[in-house]
Amino acid sequence: MLRLVLCALALLSLAPTLHAEMAAERCHLDVPCTLGERSYHVMEPDGWDGEAPLVVLMHFHGWARTGVHAQNSDRIGASTRRRSVLLVTPNGRRKTWDFWRAGSEDVGFADRVLADVLARYPVDAQQIYVSGYSYGAAMAWRYACESGDDLAALLAVAGSIDQRETCAEAPPVVRHVHGLSDTVMDFPMGPGGDSTYPVALWRARLGCAAGLGQGNWQLRSFLTFTRTSWACAKGAVTLDLHPGGHFVPHGWIGRQLDELMGRAPSYP
């Protein structure tokens, strides 16, 4: 489905006035864009001139939240605003997501969200990222599993699907962060205490070689990440672990965007 969306984008790029007219409808920030009975939110980056192609981050919110929460978060929305990234935040039915099994209607909904965004804004089709937190991270995994071939990357925070699943599609880059003390979306420890198991599905799907420890890194003095990366036949996988629980780490989303966009990493 996303491939068809990108074809539509190519056609729409020939008609910039259409982008301008649709964006002028001003569904943005806490005013939702409606798609039938469902909706999503969009937040433009600081200083955007209204014409330059935008990098897109579609972020799935956590349980009992809405897309507005991610916009207002200094760990998500603030990071996209500062990095010329358009933040797109779909709203889940009853503030949750259907990610448990293949064939989720929420995958189709997310495809329609992207199609609507591409009609409203000039988008860099090579830089469409998907992310999520908690249940939203599991939804981001599900979306990447079923509609991920044309994504640039998956950025998941503290949530995933069953590592034994087989995915029809996959983005070329996967980055996942999880707390070893997480008891909400429990840390998925592998057989024999394998702490790299949280990305086993993508390592298998992308044909990854042995992992390489990248050492520890920090954005804030109170939280240390331990990074392992895999070079893969079809892309790359990165896993950041920390000793904490269930939360979006300060600056993690922004750091991943910086690295993937070829920018000097910064905080916040």
TrEMBL record:
Record's keyword annotation contains Signal: yes
Q: Which residues cross the membrane?
A: none
Instruction: Using the record, list the residue span of the signal peptide; answer none if the entry has no such feature.
Output: 1-20
Q: What keywords is this UniProt entry annotated with?
A: Carbohydrate metabolism, Hydrolase, Polysaccharide degradation, Secreted, Signal, Xylan degradation
Tell me which domain of life the UniProt entry assigns to the organism this sequence originates from: Bacteria
- Which cell locations does it reside in? Secreted
Q: What does this protein do?
A: Involved in degradation of plant cell walls. Hydrolyzes the feruloyl-arabinose ester bond in arabinoxylans, and the feruloyl-galactose ester bond in pectin. Active against paranitrophenyl-acetate, methyl ferulate and wheat arabinoxylan.
Family named by the database record: Belongs to the faeC family.
Q: What is this protein called?
A: Polyhydroxybutyrate depolymerase
Which organism is this protein's natural source? Tritonibacter scottomollicae
